[in-house]
Amino acid sequence: MSEEYESNSAFIKALDQIKHENSKDFSRREKAHMAILQFDIDMFPVNLDGTRCDSCLSNQDFERYNMSNKAKIIIKGGSEADCIIQIKKALETINDQKR
């Protein structure tokens, strides 16, 4: 993947190593976590009255823009709780952009 991913991976490994060295009771919740959000993108034309058309754009339509109708977002956190917080922030950011 990208350099950013590799450097984050190195950071997470170093963080795990420090936690392992400092605690004999290093639990799963304290370990660095990675979430993979996968979803389909359904895009519809909109009628003048604001309603959507019945037919969805196909993957071939998306390919004209060098993309797919599938998406994957990878989110990393220093612990289980941190990863959950990062997921919430990412989803809130996506939802805020639609307004």
| Secondary-structure content class | alpha+beta
Poorly predicted spans = none
Biggest β-sheet: count, sense, barrel?
Answer: 2 strands, antiparallel
**Share of β-strand residues:** 15-25%
Question: On the 0-100 scale, what is the average pLDDT?
Answer: 83
Rounded Rg: 19 Å
**Helix coverage percent of residues?**
40-55%
Write the H/E string, N to C.
HEHEH
Determine the number of helices (DSSP H or I, runs of at least 4 residues): 3
What distinguishing features does this structure have?
single chain; alpha+beta; 99 residues
Describe the structure.
By secondary structure, the protein is an alpha+beta fold. The protein has one domain (3-97). The protein is 43% helix and 16% strand. It has three helices and two strands. Strands 1-2 form a two-stranded antiparallel sheet. The longest helix has 20 residues, at 3-22. The mean pLDDT is 83.
Strands, helices and their partners?
Elements: H1 3-22, E1 33-40, H2 59-63, E2 70-77, H3 80-97
Antiparallel strand pairs: 1-2
Quick overview:
By secondary structure, the protein is α+β, with helices and mostly antiparallel strands. It is built from three helices and two strands, in the order αβαβα. The chain has one domain.
